[in-house]
Write a structure and sequence with these properties.
This protein is 36% helix and 21% strand. Strand 3 and strand 4 form a beta hairpin. The chain starts with 5 loop residues before the first helix and ends in a 9-residue tail after the last helix. Helix 1 packs across helix 2. The longest helix has 22 residues. With 214 residues, it is an alpha/beta fold. The protein is globular and about 50 Å long. The strands form two sheets. A five-stranded parallel sheet has the order 2-1-6-7-8, with helices on both faces. It has a three-stranded antiparallel sheet with strand order 3-4-5.
Amino acid sequence: MPFEDRADAAGRLAGRLMKFKGDPGAMVAALPRGGVVIGRIVADALGLPLDLVVPRKIGAQGDPEYAIGAVTEEGDAVWNEKERGKADPAYLDDELERQRTEARRRLGTYRAGLPERSFEGKKVLLVDDGAATGLTMRAALATVRRGKAALVVVALPVCPPDTAKELAADADDVIVLEEPAFFMSIGGFYEEFPQVEDDEVLMAMKGKSEKKKA
């Protein structure tokens, strides 16, 4: 396994991002939930602020785990166009609205009590615990671009080579630690990959990093 757990992956990812350490114009933006665990550790290692971007996956009708698209908090969507063409338009409309509403709910919940989010003029390091299709990360990129970021870097522990290439078309730079040709799932590249709960995201947003086990 390339990574022991998210903390191990985050520490190694931070090592690849050291040129941004202490940069007053830089920030880390993480995708919940697992990406926030990664993001907190990276932000602490680099001495940067942490914020969130909350895209939501659009799953296939009858197979919600299979991503055919993703929607931003603002309601913009990115698609696997081939799979989109097979789907019932009414289902897609309903699912888009449902997931956009959930994205807004989560954003409000996870950022409760924090100052207004701003990406304008910033160097934004977009992090997650991995990417498979890259659709949710592409939606996150759309949100940050809409927010007028000056530079956007996608930073991931693991994703397939073709996904990294697609993300590079939208980002200013893409940093990936592992690009396996054979890719089944993100969790398959971690020895420990527990589900991250809301309270862990809230702790991370309050400045508390997950500690590695002794």
